[in-house]
Amino acid sequence: MTVDELSSTSRRLTEELLRAMGFEPKVSVRAEGNRVDVTIEVDRDDDLLNGRQGDTRQALQHLLNRFLNKGDGSRYHLQLEINDHWQHRETELEELARRLADEAAAGQVEVVSDHLNSQERRIVHMTLREDARVKTYSLGSGTVKRVAVAPASFPDRSEDDSAS
Fold first, then answer.
1. Which domain holds residue 16?
2. Cα separation of 62 and 160, whole Å?
3. DSSP state, residue 25
């Protein structure tokens, strides 16, 4: 698919899905390579589209990615933004990551976040990857896990030691 086809297909799929849900979205699209950023603006009920802790937005994003890739793998990646919710959440997560790192480094203790989905955990891991004071890893099983931030000198965990 060309970048123009990726853009137009992503716009069409997003508009169709949201209209079927009873929304009249304003959709803007920016594609580059195999990635497309879709921004939706709605006048009402954006909390229904974002959901509690962004879970509905993530589910919609997953569906749109499946539609875009016709169920076959993940050649194209669609990132969904609804009324700037994800942008605000990303900023909150970056601030949380820095606070956890400061607390872990200052107290020489492991600190743990609340439960986060994979996209949220990735923001925390990526924010702290260059911070030599600390290391991060995910705790738990399933799709919603917690992120632990520990001083770099702490021994590695043998269990649940993935940075996902």
1. 3-83
2. 25
3. -
Phi, psi of 77 (to 5 degrees): -120, 120
Same domain, 8 and 70: yes
* CATH number of the domain bearing residue 67: 3.30.300.20
Distance CA(101)–CA(9), nearest Å, equals: 41
- How far apart CA 37 and CA 57 sit, in angstroms, is 13
Question: Which tokens belong to 163?
Answer: 């940075």
Tell me the pLDDT of the chain (164 aa) as tens digits: 888 989 999 999 999 999 999 999 999 999 999 999 999 998 888 888 888 777 888 889 989 999 999 866 678 889 899 988 878 888 999 999 999 999 999 999 999 999 888 888 999 999 999 999 999 999 988 777 899 999 998 877 644 444 44
Are 98 and 123 a contacting pair, CB within 8 Å? no
Overall pTM surpassing 0.85 (yes/no): no
Number of residues written out for the chain: 164
In a domain, 159, yes or no: no
| HSE-CB for 26 with a 13 A CA cutoff | 6
Q: Where are the beta strands (DSSP E) in the chain?
A: 26-32, 35-41, 77-82, 111-116, 134-139, 145-151
One-letter identity of residue 132: A
